[in-house]
Amino acid sequence: MTFPKDFLWGGATAANQYEGGYLSGGKGPSTLDAITGGSHTKPRMITYKTKDGKIETCGRGDALPEGAVGYIDPETYYPSHVATDFYHHYKEDIALFAEMGFKCFRLSIAWSRICPKGTKEVNEEGLSFYDNVFDELLSHGIEPIVTINHFDIPMYLADELDGWSSRETIDHFLFFCETLFTRYKNKVKYWMTFNEINFLRSWTQIGIHDNSKQSKYQAAHHLFVASGKAVTLGHQINPDFKIGMMVAYIPSYPMSCKPEDVMEALTFNREQEFYMDVQVKGYYPKHKLKEFEREGITIKKEAGDDAIIASGTVDYIGFSYYMSTVSASDPTDVKYVGGNQMPAVKNPYLEESEWGWAVDPLGLRIALCKLEDRYHIPLFVVENGFGAVDKVEADGTIQDDYRIDYFKKHIAAMKDAVELDGVDLIGYTPWGCIDIVSAGTGEMKKRYGFIYVDMDDEGNGTLKRSKKKSFDWYQKVIATNGENLTEM
Question: Are 245 and 318 in contact (CB under 8 A)?
Fold first, then answer.
């Protein structure tokens, strides 16, 4: 067989898009609890309160005014408050994952469920909830894969400390990590520190009020130090822990063989690789230091920061792969289309999803090869999937052959990377294995899952779970360890 006998087949979710239970069980608010829903044409918005008490809104990637704090309007719909309610449906959902044959399940832990303000106060009810989740997974033979922080921060830390702009947030995060590592040291083996660290920005995701490059990269430095400390701490608590990083990887091709286009693609790819270079190799690459010098960016470090980063390198790279993009030196030559957390340049050789995302299975093999050649540590595809509008037929079935086709081609590309290129790949967890709220648009109609959840964009629905056609297909893929990609 191509894939190792212990290959980790499963699925992936995030607490803020799936868990719900907004303030249940002692949970505190997080930044994403103040983000509204959206659509193709209606952007997601932050609700906030100004220093003089006015209630305002701004785009989810915008900077909040100085002194502004997050605000949750009781008359506004916020998707994270219920999402698709794993909090109350975890046993039912895990039973469905087990029926599909999952070997692992990637989930994130809501920081504000464990530490309601993000500070050093622990909510025992929150810890018990995840105890129950992990016990349920393990009873079905499913390995938990835990993302420690996935795209949000407790609202108190954002409002009172300016989030990851503050050095103090590192200490609060380390307390959170130590609490998790100690409590779950015999239940969780695989961890990742930050989700898509290269996409973390703004008040929404890291609690900062200033979106300048100076502020962004200073916050990134604090994230690097926090990750390095967390890796070292985790290995001290349990040497068997496997602690990885997670990056959104979107390989970019040059628009042509014109050297200027090739240089544009190199520059684009370097920005993603920068975050892996620091966390895998343990130091800032020279090209990034030169960029800081040119642009007048000064990273404030404390004594020992470089040593912390160097000694706290990760055990594996987890990455998301949804699409590729194209780079061109002349912006008049390109057409922009949809993309994961950013606009992407249209590739005339590729088809696109309903949301404009390029569908490029071979790009996954290319990504795996590039990462294997550059880093020489195990790789884990922890997100990959196809957002689409699913139709429930009169008989209740969902015939999502388009999703099956997408996964079939991407798994085939992974097989080639392992069998033909020798890539060390340890697992595959498709994104949104059950329907969840879209991170980019806040919609429910943009569905990824093998399991349908009855919930609409306005938060209406029964939350009933039902299997899509892809459920049975993925079940067969797992049962054959990826060898059977065609038969149902």
Answer: yes
Query: What are the tokens at 224?
Result: 């690097």
Q: What is the CATH number of the domain that holds 358?
A: 3.20.20.80
The predicted-structure confidence for 470-484, as pLDDT tens digits, reads as follows 999 999 999 999 999
Give me the domain span that covers residue 312.
8-28+79-479
Which amino acid does the sequence have at 334?
V
Question: Is 354 inside a domain boundary?
Answer: yes
- Longest pairwise C-alpha distance within the chain: 65
Q: Does the predicted TM-score (pTM) go above 0.85?
A: yes
DSSP label at residue 408: H
458 is catalytic: no
Q: Report the sign of the C-alpha dihedral through residues 166, 171, 173, 174, in that order.
A: positive
Which is it for strands 344-345 and 336-337: parallel, antiparallel or unpaired? antiparallel
Report whether 281 contacts 208 (CB < 8 A). Answer: no
164 within some domain: yes
Query: Does 45 fall in a domain?
Result: no
Amino acid at 25: G
**Into how many domains does the chain fold?**
1
* Intervals of the chain under pLDDT 70: 338, 340, 488
Sequence-separated (6 or more) residues with CB below 8 Å from residue 284? 274, 277, 278
What's the sign of the alpha-carbon dihedral 454, 102, 382, 174?
A: positive
Residue 426 φ/ψ, nearest 5 degrees:
-100, -15
Burial class from Cβ neighbours inside 10 Å (0-12, 13-18, 19+) for residue 189 reads middle
Identify the CA nearest to 130 among candidates 116, 111, 152, 117. 111
412 lies in a domain? Answer: yes
User: Tokens at residue 326, please?
Assistant: 């194209």
Catalytic residue among 19, 383, 393, 458: 383
> What value, to the nearest 5°, has the Cα angle with vertex 382 and ends 381 and 386?
90
- Cα separation, 159 vs 164, in Å, equals 11
Q: Residue 445 in 3-state DSSP?
A: coil
CA torsion angle for 275, 279, 281, 285 (degrees, to 10)?
30
pLDDT tens digits along 351-395: 988 888 899 999 999 999 999 999 999 999 999 999 999 999 999
Cβ-contact 31, 158 below 8 angstroms: yes
